[in-house]
Design goal:
heterodimer; A: mainly beta; 6-stranded mixed beta sheet; 4-stranded antiparallel beta sheet; 21 strands; globular; B: alpha/beta; 5-stranded mixed beta sheet; 7 helices; 9 strands
């Protein structure tokens, strides 16, 4: 096997833990690393990359919608021309309520954000793929401390895929929300954006809905009612002035308890444009 | 998904942009809660001291990076200085707040307005302050006419299309107009209630 003779190196290197904008750098409570689920990838194939964030006990970081306070964890991946990186996916968040009835959505202990990378068929075999991730987060406990890191990762290319970090990706993949394009999505959605009807293929329990409003829009309220195989979601939205962005979409994460007792989720994107 | 999109288009989603808030806005447009507290000099300050004036309340926490960024950028300081007939009041509801902490913060950042010690949480709870910063504007009649974010730039990185909601509200009030955006979602650190 040719790939076995290649020097296969996956560099999950914390290159810099850049200084926060203000003091308290030494109090950073998140360790970030950048991983791939392959050591070697075959051109024309895909692989996943993960931003793995390990969080000190009692501290938390935030989901893509932080809730009443906080700031989203963000990761942007830069790839060579021709290599396409799909959008970053966030595992299902925890919901926490802080004193003052301040609701937050985020993560404690650890989390891995995951994105798919598409390698073009004409990528030269043997030529490594170099990726850079810019990651930022806000870690909070009694105080909040911003953090950021620039991380680099090299994936070799060859005739066959060779897996890496399998257990870590196997742990986090089921915690990613399904998307409508996934064949296994267990629902269909219909109706206007202020009165959405979610119809489940089979009865589900404990349905919760988390909004991700686009820039320039507030979600004033989100009324959710569920019975058997139908969930009705009534978001009340409010524009915040400024220019309306073309292509704006309301993100909705719908979580539920699956038959096996595991918590699962579906991520929807509801277009807000009127089409004219 | 296509079906959904077509349905949305057919129903004319422009309506979404004109839906009025149906959330709990009980205190918006109504009398702002009264309060009395000590400022960083130990002086007693009451909302009733400023009857007939426009008042801005700014929730602060010197440990919060959002507050630190706005202090660095002089966002509140410059706005407070710009509207000389507007009363600007900081409120520190952090459970560990003390008058010396607030005095140090004011000194470090050249703030001349009072910062109230609300470590008892009374003012924060009365107004429903959730974040630092969280902004409230009270009109000359003593009614709450704006609550929410200072601006639409949580990351402080916008180079265009930036809106300072408090500035907009003050300009409208001073021009005798109603506040066009009376409520937004605030951003920042959670208020560290006791």
């Amino acid at each position: 096997m040719r790939s076995a003779s290649l020097l296969c190196v996956v560099c999950a290197a914390l290159v810099t833990l850049a200084a926060p904008a203000h003091a308290a750098d030494a109090r950073q409570h998140v360790h970030a690393s950048f991983l791939a689920d392959v050591k070697t990838v075959k051109p024309g194939d895909v692989f996943d990359v993960g931003i793995f964030l390990q969080i000190d006990p009692d501290w938390h970081i935030y989901w893509e919608n932080p809730g009443d306070s906080g700031s989203p964890t963000r990761a942007t991946i830069t790839a060579p021309p021709g290599v396409a990186v799909e959008s970053m996916r966030y595992p299902l968040p925890e919901e926490f309520t802080q004193p003052g009835d301040i609701k937050g959505y985020g993560y404690t202990d650890e989390v891995m954000l995951i994105a798919r990378v598409n390698v073009p068929p004409d990528w030269p075999r043997g030529k490594p793929i170099q990726l850079t991730a810019q990651v930022s987060w806000l870690n909070c406990k009694d105080v909040c401390i911003p953090g950021k890191a620039v991380l680099e990762l090299t994936v070799e290319t060859g005739d066959q895929n060779e897996n890496a970090n399998s257990s870590l990706f196997a742990k986090w993949h089921p915690r990613l929300p399904l998307r409508v394009k996934d064949r296994t999505v267990p629902l269909t959605v219909d109706g206007p954006v202020n009165d959405l009807k979610v119809r489940w293929n089979a009865p589900v329990k404990d349905v919760k809905v988390f909004p991700v409003p686009p820039e320039g829009v507030d979600v004033v309220s989100l009324d959710v009612s569920h019975a058997d195989t139908t969930t009705t979601i009534k978001p009340v939205l409010r524009p915040l002035g400024g220019e309306k962005k073309p292509g704006a979409a309301l993100g909705l994460l719908i979580t539920y308890e699956a038959e096996n007792g595991q918590r699962r989720g579906v991520r929807l994107s509801i277009p807000l444009q009127s089409g004219g | 998904m296509r079906k959904l999109f077509m349905t949305l288009v057919a129903l004319g989603l422009i309506a979404v942009w004109t839906v009025n808030s149906q959330a709990d806005q009980a205190s918006l447009g109504q009398r702002a809660p009264a309060f009395t507290a000590q400022d960083q000099q130990g002086k007693t300050v009451s909302l009733s001291d400023f009857a007939g004036k426009i008042v801005v309340l700014e929730w602060i926490n010197p440990d919060c990076p959002f507050v630190q960024r706005h202090a660095h950028d002089h966002t509140m300081k410059d706005l407070a200085a710009r509207y000389k007939d507007v009363i600007w009041i900081g409120v520190n509801t952090t459970k560990s707040a003390t008058n010396p902490i607030d005095a140090d913060w004011a000194k470090q950042n050249g703030l001349t307005y009072p910062i109230l010690n609300d470590s008892s949480s009374q003012i924060g709870q009365a107004y429903g302050a959730k974040t630092t910063p969280h902004m409230f504007v009270i009109d000359r009649k003593g009614n709450l006419v704006y609550r929410g974010a200072i601006d639409n730039d949580p990351d402080g990185k916008k180079t265009s299309d930036k809106i300072n909601y408090v500035q907009r509200a003050l300009d409208e009030l001073l021009a005798g107009k109603p506040v066009s955006i009376p409520e937004t979602k605030s951003y920042g650190c959670a208020v560290k209630y006791r």
